[in-house]
Specification:
Length: about 60
């Protein structure tokens, strides 16, 4: 079962790092696309990056 906080940010996973220089939250979005990825999918991930959980990084994982 998916954690409610992950569902709220529309991300597949969320991680935390305690490193001072590169730490903070990282959002991971994993999706399967049959065709090319549309720019709005990347923009949506960038939109939740800082707004929802103040993440400093995001990783977009795709497969086709």
């Amino acid at each position: 079962m998916e954690h409610p906080a992950v569902r709220a940010i529309k991300a597949s996973a969320r991680s935390w790092s305690h490193r001072p220089s590169s730490g903070g939250y990282c959002i991971v979005q994993a999706k399967h696309y049959a065709k090319c990825i549309q720019p709005d999918a990347v923009l949506a991930l960038a939109g939740v990056l800082g707004q929802d959980h103040h993440a400093s990084k995001a990783i977009f994982v795709t497969a086709s």
